[in-house]
Design goal:
The chain is about 20% helix and about 45% strand. It has helices spanning about 10-20, 60-65, 95-110, and strands at about 1-5, 20-30, 30-45, 50-55, 70-75, 85-95, 120-135, 140-145. The longest helix is centred in the last third of the chain and has 14 residues, at about 95-110.
């Protein structure tokens, strides 16, 4: 497994994150785990995944209580003979100020229809990423840690 020692994330991880659309986010609060799936956009500038959701959902309430989250991203189109996927750890936050403006541009550029939908933008600052990509060789893993 390749593990990036520098702060720069491997371009193969960035390319995968930018090319996919859905993330499964796992939260936990008061010993109650929960997972949800959200459409996301990846921001290289903030090393964050931004998504839209309502504050009254269980995953947002839990993440506000305990901001440490995990998640996974699978390819939008699964190919059974070419296993690919990404696992992540990160810290949930509500973007504000300049960060909110930048992340809004990132998200709405990818999903302009989302401008018509209710909800607020939220984000996960990534701290650990592991990409499994058998297209690079059987069992090939590329990892990055903050």
């Amino acid at each position: 497994m390749e593990i990036a020692q520098q702060t720069r994330i491997d371009e193969r991880i960035v390319a995968f994150l930018k090319s996919q659309t859905a993330v499964s986010i796992c939260t936990c609060s008061e010993n109650i785990p929960y997972s949800c799936i959200c459409f996301y956009a990846y921001s290289e500038e903030f090393n964050a995944m931004v998504f839209k959701s309502n504050e009254d959902t269980l995953h947002i309430r839990q993440a506000l209580s305990n901001p440490l989250v995990s998640g996974s991203v699978l390819p939008d189109k699964l190919e059974k003979t070419r296993v690919r996927g990404l696992q992540l750890l990160g810290k949930f936050f509500k973007p504000e100020g300049e960060a909110l403006g930048q992340l809004q541009r990132t998200y709405y550029k990818k999903y302009p229809i989302a401008l018509t939908m209710k909800g607020e933008l939220w984000a996960i600052e990534l701290s650990s990423i592991k990409l499994t990509d058998n297209t690079l060789g059987f069992g090939k893993k590329i990892a990055w840690q903050k």
